[in-house]
Amino acid sequence: MHPAPTTVTITGAGGQIGYALLFRIAAGEMLGPDRPVRLRLLEIPQGVKAAEGAALELQDCAFPLLAGVEVSDDPRVGFDGADLALLVGARPRTAGMERADLLAANAGIFGPQGAALNEVAADGIRVLTVGNPANTNALIAAAGAPGIPRDRFTALTRLDHDRAVAQLAAALDAPVADIAGVAIWGNHSATQFADVAHASVAGRPALDALADRFGGADAASAWLDDVFLPRVAQRGAEIISVRGSSSAASAANAAIAHVRDQVLGTGGRRVSAAVVSTGQYGVPEGLVCSFPVVGESGDYRVVEGLDLDERARARLDASVAELVAERETVRSLGAL
C-alpha cells in the first residue's frame, strides 16, 4: 500500500525548467518509486496556458505515482498544503539591468511567495529556490515566512557541483562515479568557488591525480585557476552561446538531485547546497551560502572541519562579501 501523496509545488511550472522537471518528478525520480506525488503548478497569468498544457501531458502519461495535477496563478492556492516547494520562476536579468534592479524585481516575487508559504504550506514544508539570484531569493522568501524555520529554505548550487564533478572527471579521463568530495562554496554566481582540495578520484586525492595529469603541482594549480574555475562558473553562459537558450534540463536534473538527497539522504556522500549559515567557516549567520553538505534525516547538514588554505579562504570571503552586499541591497528595499 502506497503512503499518502506528497504535495509538490513548482513555480514557473510552464517554463523550460518546469517542463523538464514535471515528468521526472511524476515518474518517481525525485522522491522514489514508492512515493505518490500530487503536483501543483503555479504560474503567473501569462504562463497558465503553458502549465495547463503540461498538465494535460502529465495526465496522458498515466504515471502510476501521480495522484493529481492542479494549475493556479494564486500562490495561496498553489502552496496550499505543500510539503515541498520548488521556486523556479524568477525575473531574469535583461540587457542593461543593474543587479540592484534585479534584486528589487525578485523581492516582489519571492517575498509574497514566502508569505503565502507561511500561511498555507504544510507544517513540514521544505523549500528549494532555483530561480536566480537563488541564494538571495531564498533569503527573501525565508524572511517572508517568519513561521517557517529558516533552515527549511535552501538554494540550488547542485548544478555548479555537478558541473565541477563533470569537468574534473573529463580532465582526468575518469568515470564520474569515481569522483567524490567536490565542494561549491559561496554564491551561485561568478564568485562561487569550486573546491577540489578535499576531493578524490577512485579514492586517490584529486590534487595528486591532477599533478600527474598536468606534469606537476604548479601546472595543476594553473589549470584549476585558469580553466577549471572559470569553466564551472561560466558554464551557463557557455551553454546559452552554443544552444541559444539556457540550461533548462541540467538545472532540472540538479534540482531533482538536490531534493532527492535532502529527503532520502546521501549515505554520508558529500554534495553541495546553499543552506542558511549558522556561522560555519566564518560565514555570517543567516546568509544563504553554499557549503559541502550531507543529506540525513530529511535535511542537509554542513560538513565541518575541512581545512581551507589561503587561496580557498580568499575565494570564499569574496563570494560571501557579494552575498552580504546583496543582502544589504535587499534590506534597503525593505524586503528583509
Q: Compute the gyration radius: what is it? A: 20 Å
Structural class: alpha/beta
What is the H level of CATH, i.e. the homologous superfamily of the largest domain?
Lactate dehydrogenase/glycoside hydrolase, family 4, C-terminal
CATH class wording of the largest domain: Alpha Beta
How many structural domains are formed by the residues?
Answer: 2
Range of strand content: 15-25%
The backbone outline, from C-alpha atoms, is globular
Distance between the termini: 44 Å
> Please, how many helices?
11
Main sheet summary: 9 strands, mixed
- CATH architecture of the largest domain, by name, is Alpha-Beta Complex
CATH third-level topology of the largest domain: L-2-Hydroxyisocaproate Dehydrogenase, Chain A, domain 2
Helicity, in percent?
40-55%
Describe the secondary structure blueprint for this structure.
Blueprint: E1 6-11, H1 16-26, E2 37-42, H2 48-61, E3 66-72, H3 75-78, E4 84-87, H4 99-120, E5 126-129, H5 134-143, E6 153-155, H6 158-172, E7 179-180, E8 183-185, E9 193-195, E10 200-201, E11 204-205, H7 206-214, H8 217-233, H9 235-243, H10 248-264, E12 271-276, E13 288-296, E14 299-302, H11 310-332
Parallel strand pairs: 1-2, 1-4, 2-3, 4-5, 5-6
Antiparallel strand pairs: 6-12, 7-10, 8-9, 10-11, 12-13, 13-14
Helix pairs in contact: 1-10, 4-5, 5-11, 6-8, 7-8
Offer a quick outline of the entry.
The chain is of the alpha/beta class and 336 residues long. The protein contains 11 helices and 14 strands. The chain is globular, with a radius of gyration of 20 Å.
